[in-house]
Specification:
The radius of gyration is 30 Å and the shape is elongated. The strands form two sheets. It has a four-stranded antiparallel β-sheet. Strands 5-6-7-8 form a four-stranded antiparallel β-sheet. The chain has four helices and eight strands. Helix 1 (about 1-70) packs antiparallel against helix 2. The longest helix is centred in the first third of the chain and has 70 residues, at about 1-70. Helix content is about 45%, strand content about 30%. The model is unreliable at about 5-10 (pLDDT under 50). By secondary structure, the chain is of the alpha+beta class. Strand 1 and strand 2 (about 100-115) form a beta hairpin.
Length: about 250
């Protein structure tokens, strides 16, 4: 009888422990589900706010650029391209003479903090591909318009930006006597196989040389003319060489 009672006590104790474990497990699972749901909502809201901030910033930047174009006092396409670049740093800026419109394509990005109880949270960068259009007609002020495009539309510009940075570095390291059209072309494409750079001219004026290069995106037909300027002698570090897009080469 004692043995039977002991068995019942053990059985009851085991059931109690099992029920307690089930309750604890249920609480943990419920809490994890709630955190997953809560964190998902918070992250979605933060992502939307981050994307909205990119567009808001781009529109404000476009308005500032339109005002800068108004006060530039020039109708020269190259000079106006430079104004847009200094305001936006867009790697690709095209000009449509028939419409009197400039189009600047660039990817905007911002970082937000993603919450998570699991590894993988923290800073997250989101991007938007944005196209800013600037139009001008006689007797009117410059107007701006910002539209969003698929990420693929910004890929050529991102690649061109990388090619420009590489060209800027290589031109900075060249010997002064090699700063000719042929010399720069050879420095940028030693084997003549890459076809990313088409050096159109290299002109020395005073103590500086200006190199005009059509920089292309690998695997696409997109291209942008850039003018690289560096001192012929003296401090020839990368910071002394500038690269600014131009409407044509």
């Amino acid at each position: 009888m004692v043995t039977g009672r002991a068995n019942r006590l053990v059985t009851t104790g085991c059931l109690t422990i099992l029920i307690a474990l089930i309750i604890v497990l249920g609480v943990v699972v419920s809490w994890l589900w709630y955190r997953h749901w809560h964190d998902g909502n918070v992250n979605s809201e933060r992502r939307e706010q981050a994307l909205a901030s990119i567009l808001k910033q781009a529109r404000a930047e476009a308005d500032d650029t339109a005002r800068a174009l108004d006060t530039s006092g020039t109708a020269d396409a190259d000079a106006l391209t430079g104004v847009i670049w200094r305001q936006s740093q867009a790697p690709v800026i095209t000009y449509d003479a028939s419409r009197r419109e400039f189009t600047a394509t660039a990817a905007g990005s911002v970082v937000y903090d993603e919450v998570s109880i699991m590894p993988g949270g923290g800073p997250v960068r989101v991007t938007r591909c944005l196209v800013s259009t600037y139009a001008h007609h006689p007797g009117r002020t410059w107007t701006s318009r910002v539209t969003e495009r698929d990420d693929d539309a910004c890929l050529p510009g991102t690649e061109i930006d990388g090619q420009v940075r590489l060209a800027r570095t290589r031109i900075s390291l060249m010997h002064a006597e090699d700063l000719t059209r042929t010399g720069v072309q050879k420095a940028l494409d030693p084997n003549g196989r890459l076809r990313f750079y088409d050096v159109r001219s290299a002109v020395r004026k005073g103590d500086t040389v200006t190199v005009s290069i059509l920089v292309s995106s690998p695997g696409t037909t997109a291209g942008q003319c850039y003018r690289f300027t560096r001192p012929v002698a003296g401090d020839v570090g990368q910071s002394s060489t500038t690269a600014i897009p131009a409407s044509s080469c």
